[in-house]
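Thread amino acids onto this structure.
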């Protein structure tokens, strides 16, 4: 839910052309859903996008935003969302909320300006 919720927040900013940087939000939208699928498939979380085709798509959106439409980005996101929906029932992992909260606090403290 957190990944999808954050992705939808980025989608809204993309559609609103927030700060005239719609492509930044489009990349965040897709990458968040890709990270979710990768986590569900591998059981680990990595910021590195290992799928070269998908990485190329993100770079295309970031560097050449005029080459894609909002509809194409949303279509890509829906494919990822369906993939996550298929993977989620197979996930038997129970999160350690204390560990997650400790990590989030550590990251926030390290990068808080």
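Threaded sequence (113 positions):
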């Amino acid at each position: 839910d957190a990944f999808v919720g954050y992705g939808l927040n980025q989608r809204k900013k993309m559609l609103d052309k927030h700060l005239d940087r719609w492509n930044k939000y489009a990349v965040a939208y897709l990458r968040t859903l890709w990270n979710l699928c990768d986590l569900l498939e591998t059981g680990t979380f990595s910021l590195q996008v290992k799928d070269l085709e998908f990485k190329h798509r993100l770079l295309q959106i970031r560097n050449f935003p005029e080459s894609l439409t909002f509809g194409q980005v949303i279509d890509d996101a829906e494919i990822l969302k369906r993939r996550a929906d298929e993977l989620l029932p197979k996930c038997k992992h129970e999160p350690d909320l204390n560990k997650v909260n400790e990590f989030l606090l550590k990251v926030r403290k390290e990068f808080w300006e």
